[in-house]
Amino acid sequence: MNIQWYPGHMTKTKRMMIENISLVDIVIELVDARIPYSSKNPDIDELAKNKYRILLLNKCDLAEEKITALWETYYQQKGFAVIKINSLKGTSMTEVTNTARAFMKEKVERLKARGRLFVPIRSMIVGIPNVGKSTFINQYVGKTTAKTGDKPGVTRGKQWIKLKKDFELLDTPGILWPKFDDKAVGLKLAFTGAVNDDILDLTTLATELIDCLLLRHSQNIKDRYKIAFDTIEEPHKILEKIAIERGFKQKGGEPDIDRAAKILLDEYRGGKLGKITLELPEEII
């Protein structure tokens, strides 16, 4: 299953980010804590190479804590300030502000010494579709400012958001990159909902997810769906067992594996299979 998805508005978004990067001092990037490598747009590193960088490991409540800690160290060693957040609950919002202020303290003091009475801190917030960026902004601001939705690509234009008197945030639409060179990256993005489900074969995607989970998380599937299987069993057979256990039937009594596939994907994305991280830093070449 080879996944490629790059809607036309993403080209416009990238161009807009390039045009506006000079207006900000800090780039705040959200990634999905379940796939901290695959959900990180490689184009952003080049775009923001001369800026202060804050990396937010969002949805950390859905990821394995020990592995999240490994990713935190991994990105800190690459020069990022790393903060674990849960944008739905609004955790660690103050830490984001304090980190940004710490980055800018010297510059602000220097400019004020030269007579600048007002020195705003300007940040750009970026991330792939459906990573929780709009939800984070709404929690951060304390009111509904950015549009949110379950489908990727809800935010379509840039907007400046004033957080405090001296703190401004430039919101940008979620952006992927034109080509996923690694098939596994495309699959992980699809598993977590960063790629629009409307262009995908969800049954095939669900069997790919089962295949991905078999090595380290087969027990999560067994516990959730009360089924038994060996790790060498074919993923489509496991999906069929899920359909049977849940009572999903087509006309004629055959297991409705399409419905089972949708349920499996929804429940994985919602954390009902437990805390699951799909990649480790040691796997990155």
Q: What would you note in describing this structure?
A:
Mean pLDDT is 87; it is low at 146-156. 42% of the residues lie in helices and 13% in strands. The chain is α/β, with parallel strands linked by helices and 285 residues long. Strand 1, helix 2 and strand 2 form a beta-alpha-beta unit. The protein is elongated, with a radius of gyration of 21 Å. It is built from nine helices and six strands. The protein has a six-stranded mixed beta sheet with strand order 3-2-1-4-6-5, sandwiched between helices. The two termini are 22 Å apart. The longest helix is centred in the C-terminal third of the chain and has 24 residues, at 202-225. Helix 6 crosses helix 7, helix 7 (202-225) packs across helix 8 and helix 8 crosses helix 9 (257-269).
Q: How many strand units?
A: 6
Q: List low-pLDDT spans.
A: 146-156
Gyration radius over CA: 21 Å
- Please state the overall shape, judged from the principal axes of the Cα atoms: elongated
Helix-strand string? HEHEHEHEHEEHHHH
Share of helix, binned: 40-55%
Mean pLDDT across all amino acids: 87
Which sheet architecture does the biggest sheet show?
6 strands, mixed
End-to-end CA span: 22 Å
The largest sheet has its strands arranged as 3-2-1-4-6-5
Q: Give the number of helices.
A: 9
Structural class designation: alpha/beta
Strand proportion? 5-15%
